[in-house]
Amino acid sequence: MQGKKPRTASSELEFVAGNGLLNRRALLGSSIALAGAAATGIGATSVAAEPVKDGPWSLAPGAVTPELQAPSRFEKDVVRALSNPTGVPRTQHARTPHQMLNGTITPNSLHFTILHTGIPDIDPAQHRLVIHGLVRQPLEFTLDKLARYPMVTRNHFVECGGNSGPLFNKEPVQGTLQQLHGLCSSAEWTGVLLSTLLEEAGVDPQAKWIITEGADSSALTRSTPLKKALDDAMIALYQNGERLMPGNGYPMRLLLPGWEGNMNTKFLRRIKLVDQPAMTYYEARNYSPLLPDGKAYKFYFINEVKSFISFPSFGYRLEEAGYYEISGIAFSGTGRIAKVMVSADGGKSWAEAALQAPVHPKAFTRFRMPWRWNGQPVVLQSRAWDEAGNAQPLRADFVAVRGETKESVPRNPFPNNHYNSLTSWGIDGKGEIKHVYA
């Protein structure tokens, strides 16, 4: 049997698709590959062997350590974008700045939120969760009582059904990832499985759905199939190791991994088991996507497989030709991400990106692709597949089924839900980046 050929810098850095995409093995820890990458000119500057000069921060003691740590003042622009900063009586959106983040966990302070009637100031000592309806015995839980049950910790994303809505527009909207895809985030959640509580309450055989209700002034109410409630639904109490942020549902929220954000009821106070869906305002109107023929989906629960490139993306500018790392996020409401393909020529050729481990089900997965830009115009795209074999649809195929709108900001945004097709970034010879359709 013939032995394997030794790996070399040239083999690790081979071009595997058009316009400079390199073999992903260059990112998988091979020192010889990294050395080869450095030789291509990543961006380091050669200097003489002289002592490092002290900055003013090195010449005196620093600030006093605060009780609650805050980001550096130099990171003041890494904030959420608000749709309603003055609190006018309407829905408030706060979008995550994905183009400024890395990794797979969204910091609590930057996790997206949507509030229909503002953030309630709930006293956790007085809050109650009631389970009733088609059960053997109704149950009531205080926060302290609920915290005594066995807990689980899992990584999951949450995505608003309206996330990426601007991509329904007939012409590409020029906006950052925050503006286009900022209504999704991923976190480590800790709480009690809903199945544990339902088992204690005793589910009546007639029960087929649950109706969940929040303690905010709108009493937001949604219906969820009982099957999902008994599968992986959680009453979340902690987010990334600390108590839930008020805007994310403090003191407790429903978490339905992979399912539409509006169904993940925040400020959870009531779960009623019933034999049919309630057909509430949010499920009968706001989150029932319209189709080109005028019909609408009765229910659309799952956030399907999706990906987007976070760097380089709109808002950045490539200063010079050379080596770059293309990076982005992929996720799917039906399981783990299996692979992500990247194209630098508008979909004419594709190469497989490296996935950052571990890959959790129904959670953000970071993908990375080594790339050598030659300074010529390119179009960058990513396309994801999940472990169930679902592929992110091409735009033409998606539009053929779901339609599009001529309005960049539709007067009625509700039909424009659950967009999961490709996002394309066009880079010109000057390094300027625009949102394009390809």
Mean pLDDT: 91
Strand content range: 25-35%
What is the CA-CA span between the terminal residues?
A: 46 Å
The count of helical stretches stands at 8
**Strands ordered across the widest β-sheet:** 7-6-15-10-11
Principal-axes shape call: globular
Counted beta strands: 24
Main β sheet profile: 5 strands, mixed
Mind telling me the C-alpha Rg? 24 Å
Share of helix, binned: 10-25%
What class, by secondary structure content? Answer: mainly beta
Low-confidence stretches: 1-11
Features:
8 helices, 438 residues, 28% strand, 24 strands, 11% helix, mainly beta
What would your notes on this structure say?
A five-stranded mixed beta sheet has the order 7-6-15-10-11. Strands 8, 9, 12, 13 and 14 form a five-stranded antiparallel beta sheet that branches. It has helices at residues 9-12, 31-39, 143-146, 177-181, 194-201, 226-229, 281-286, 395-402; strands at residues 15-17, 21-22, 81-82, 92-95, 113-115, 129-133, 139-141, 152-159, 184-193, 209-214, 221-225, 234-239, 242-243, 253-255, 268-274, 306-311, 322-331, 337-343, 351-352, 354-355, 365-373, 378-386, 424-427, 433-436. The protein contains eight helices and 24 strands.
